[in-house]
Amino acid sequence: MRKAFTLIELLVVIAIVGILASVMVPAISGGHTLSQTAVCKNNQRQLVLAAAAYRTDHGTNPPSVVSMFTHWDDDSILWQYIGGEKENTACPNHSSSEYSVTGYNYNTSFIGDEFIIGSGFIVKGLLPAECSHPSHCALFGDGYENKFMRATLSDASIRCGGRQEYRHNFSTVVGWLDGHVSSQEKQFNNNCTDEQQVGFLSEDNSAYDPRKIVLQ
Fold this sequence. Notes:
This protein has one domain. It has a five-stranded mixed sheet, covered by helices on one side. Strands 2-3 form a two-stranded antiparallel ribbon. It has a two-stranded antiparallel sheet with strand order 6-9. The relative contact order is 0.14. Strand 7 and strand 8 form a beta hairpin. By secondary structure, the chain is of the alpha+beta class. The radius of gyration is 22 Å and the shape is elongated.
């Protein structure tokens, strides 16, 4: 009666286990990535709904900047509609908490009620009635070291500080003005830097300015 495996049999078993492990690890990792992306999409969906609720209550878009220390992501602006702490709605892949607690940015070029630039110049956002195709206009996104989303052709001195980070397996999550949320892999750097996984959502302002969108 056999009581032990032969050396060859043990080597075969080890080889099979190694093959199974090499197949399973990427699948498990991929599942984890998809799970993180799903969490990020759900968080941004809540932000889009909160922005819509704010517009209903105030008749205008949420402000980009209220004061030097109060921005769109202040607890008193959007999180009152979400009903939770913003730390709990952070993107799972967000790593630059010194710039933004949640990792999300907001379309300050065209949507915010008021965006006060450092010099005191105020940029007024568009009214909802001016948005011809809300499903093609970005509202929130995975921000890169900044909580303010800039349009591609805005002032060069500030626009590069408002790009998207493609941190979900080389894709970025975007919450659109009409309420839907999606992932986008295509990125445009527009002569800012050659940083990997960082860029704009479109080559021109078409993903940010809902007045200029032309449907193909």
